[in-house]
Amino acid sequence: VVKPFDVPRVVNQLMQLVIRRSVAAERVLIIEDDDDLAQHYQLVLQAAGMQVARLTEAEKIVETVLSQRSELVLMDLYMPRYSGRELAGVLRQYPSCVGLPIVFLSGETDVNRQLSAMGSGADDFLTKPISDEHLVAAIRVRVERARYLNEQIMLDGLTGLLKHANIKEAAELEWHSAQQREQAVAFVMVDIDFFKRVNDQYGHAVGDMVIASAAMLLRQRLRRDDRIGRYGGEEFFAVLIDCNAAQAKLILDDIRERFERLVFQHANGHFHCSLSGGCVDNQSHADANAEQLRKLADEALYEAKHGGRNCIVA
Ligand code: GH3
Ligand code: MG
Ligand code: MG
Ligand code: MG
Ligand code: MG
């Protein structure tokens, strides 16, 4: 016997996700041309429990921030090939990096030059030499605030998934990264079946609960590195890393079956819902770019709808 859908438990699970995320190690990206200094900062921050990466190729700054899921960039100002100002300017052009704290750490003590560097979009200017305690505290407080603000900016309030613009951008970047590594990436579109009826028969609030539960199943069943967004009202767009369309279909069929088994309560009883999905991958569509691949996934979704719904087409 399947128990009716339990809203307090769902809320509690979502809170647990939020709490777990807020105590996770801060992920810091160090950009510093002096190897000894970089290593010193790395050790100090690691000793404070942070997860530290170092940028090795300036040209790949955006990809590195994305793949490392950096939460703060600690950057030198004067470097031989690109200045810190230039790199900060590049990062600030990407919507998903708008809320990324950029902190300069430099020997520059001239206040006017410090302020001019801040004009490139940095959040703070620390000067070398700096005490370990000062460095750790400055980073920790900025990451904590950025986590909260980024959630408000990037995540949809009902589902906790990426908003439309953010999943599109994430898909674009993940697609580029997969192409470069010659790795498979699957694009998946999911839509709840006959959802208008749910709203019409049981009301908007119950409809919202159905959307939130589909989102939670996607979250629970997909992997941590996969990207999931609420593309539209009751429509989701997911990017499955290192996964082809056939593998994506297996996972989505499992999600589809779990969703079908959920029991939703309304004032006078209970009801069931179903969802449909379409999966494609970059390898069987070598000529398609990210947006074309998403459209192909949408076409597969419509095939699933016309094929009778409650199914996944790959
Ligand atoms: P199909 O199986 O073909 O997808 O049928 P459908 O009824 O699901 O069709 P459609 O996708 O056109 O309907 C989506 C409905 O979702 C229309 C809109 O009123 C409703 N909707 C959009 N956003 C929200 C929301 O945030 N909450 C609720 N409760 N309903 C929403
Ligand atoms: Mg330097
Ligand atoms: Mg529709
Ligand atoms: Mg629908
Ligand atoms: Mg729809």
UniProtKB/TrEMBL annotation:
<dbReference type="GO" id="GO:0043709">
    <property type="term" value="P:cell adhesion involved in single-species biofilm formation"/>
</dbReference>
<dbReference type="GO" id="GO:0004672">
    <property type="term" value="F:protein kinase activity"/>
</dbReference>
<feature type="domain" description="Response regulatory">
    <location>
        <begin position="27"/>
        <end position="143"/>
    </location>
</feature>
<dbReference type="GO" id="GO:0000160">
    <property type="term" value="P:phosphorelay signal transduction system"/>
</dbReference>
<dbReference type="GO" id="GO:0052621">
    <property type="term" value="F:diguanylate cyclase activity"/>
</dbReference>
<keyword id="KW-0902">Two-component regulatory system</keyword>
<feature type="domain" description="GGDEF">
    <location>
        <begin position="183"/>
        <end position="314"/>
    </location>
</feature>
<protein>
    <recommendedName>
        <fullName>diguanylate cyclase</fullName>
        <ecNumber>2.7.7.65</ecNumber>
    </recommendedName>
</protein>
<dbReference type="GO" id="GO:1902201">
    <property type="term" value="P:negative regulation of bacterial-type flagellum-dependent cell motility"/>
</dbReference>
<feature type="modified residue" description="4-aspartylphosphate">
    <location>
        <position position="76"/>
    </location>
</feature>
<dbReference type="GO" id="GO:0005886">
    <property type="term" value="C:plasma membrane"/>
</dbReference>
<keyword id="KW-0597">Phosphoprotein</keyword>
